[in-house]
Amino acid sequence: MKSSIFSSEWWLDATAGDGNWGVSSVIENGKTIASMPWVRTKSFCGVNILSHPPLTQTLSPWLADPPKGSKYTRVLAREKDLFGKLIDQLPDYQAFSQSFAPEITNWLPFYWKGFQQTTRYTYRLHNLLDVDSIWSGFQENIKTDIRKAKKLGITVERSSDIDTFLDINDLTFRRQGIKFPHSRSFVKDLFKTCELHHAGTIFLARGSDGRVHAGNFIVWNEHCAYYLLGGGDPQLRNSGATSLALWHAIQFASSVTQIFDFEGSMIEAVERFVRGFGAIQTAYFSVKHIPSRRVASFLALRSGLSSFTRQKNLS
After folding, report:
1. How confident is the model at residue 264 (pLDDT cuts 50, 70, 90)?
2. Distance (Å, rounded) from C-alpha 303 to C-alpha 290?
3. Residues 6 or more apart in contact with residue 94 via CB below 8 angstroms
4. Which of 122, 260, 261, 306 counts the highest number of beta carbons within 10 A?
5. Average pLDDT for residues 145-168, to the nearest whole number?
6. Banded pLDDT at 295 (limits 50, 70, 90)
7. Long-range contacts, 252-257 (Cβ 8 Å, 24+)
8. Average pLDDT, the chain
9. Is the pLDDT of residue 308 over 70?
10. Which domains, ranges and CATH numbers included, belong to the chain?
């Protein structure tokens, strides 16, 4: 099974902070054959929560590939055994919430331990080496946007200018009446760490006058690249620059990894946009466990109030 960048030690140090995360693991004959990272997030009113650090799409178990020639029934039995051991090693918590990578297709052992699951979706491009095939899979509106941007003289550059990118990204949130959910210093530090590990870059789309129209921040390992953040100037949103910048990011990803993940597409307008790139709808599991009914009720109320506040801010 391929591992995700989000399970890397350096990623968890950068996003969760040293001392705030750990790993359940199963070792056999001196080798790790199963692992599951966990992160202790800031508790709310004393509730002990294991969840995701910021900007971390998935946080999921990893299993070594089963022995060659294993029967399917044996594979399932092995997964039940290993997942059970990983769950039993988790530190004490009052609420657990993690989204598993799409590679995890069997959450049944978690169900038997009292966990619940919600199916969510992302969109993925495979076979990145065949960029001509990827281009042919784009919907016509995406191709039209890209051609329009080029005709307007917009060019895309690979950049380390995180400040300019954050300025553009902030404009996107402001247009929606939403405050950018992460501190600039956090994103800047994460970007520097990604650059240090040759695992992250920015693409900026500029007009002939030098003005930045749009940009994106992608991260990757040898298995998959992720569209971590993106944004555009609301005054220039019809230039096609967002599509052009993403096309450059996809072409770059084809040189360093195998898959391009558009990272979560549950918002209808976002889903419509990324679907236009011909990506494959891909399911993944959001798994939760709140043993106490009292804590479950409290967190549900908190979530409802937060949702109500967001709606008020947008109205």
Report:
1. low
2. 14
3. 47, 48, 49, 290, 291, 292, 295
4. 261
5. 97
6. low
7. 252/158, 252/201, 252/203, 252/218, 253/128, 253/218, 253/220, 253/225, 254/128, 254/129, 254/131, 254/134, 256/220, 256/222, 256/225, 257/128, 257/220, 257/221, 257/222, 257/223, 257/224, 257/225
8. 91
9. no
10. 5-119+285-314 (3.40.630), 127-257 (3.40.630.30)
Q: Yes or no: say if 252 and 128 are a contact pair by the CB < 8 Å rule.
A: no
15-44: average pLDDT: 92
What pLDDT does 44 receive?
A: 65
| CA angle (277 as vertex; 11, 7 as ends), nearest 5 | 15
- Rounded mean pLDDT, 294-308: 55
On the question of pLDDT at 301 being above 70, the answer is no
Among 67-76, 96-105, 250-259, 266-275, name the one with the lowest average pLDDT. Answer: 266-275
Structure tokens at 28: 């056999």
Q: Average pLDDT in the 53-64 region? A: 95
Question: Concatenated DSSP letters for the chain?
Answer: -PPPGGGSHHHHHHHT-TTSEEEEEEEETTEEEEEEEEEEEEEETTEEEEEPPTT------EEPPPPTT--HHHHHHHHHHHHHHHHHTSPP-SEEEEEPPTT----HHHHTTT-EEEEEEEEEE--TT-HHHHHHHS-HHHHHHHHHHHHTT-EEEEE--HHHHHHHHHHHHHHTT---SS-HHHHHHHHHHHHHTT-EEEEEEE-TTS-EEEEEEEEE-SSEEEEEEEEE-GGGTTSSHHHHHHHHHHHHHTTT-SEEE-----SHHHHHHHHTTTPEEEEEEEEEE---HHHHHHHHHHHHHHHHHHHHHH-
pTM for this model (two decimals) = 0.90
Task: Report pLDDT for 28.
Answer: 94
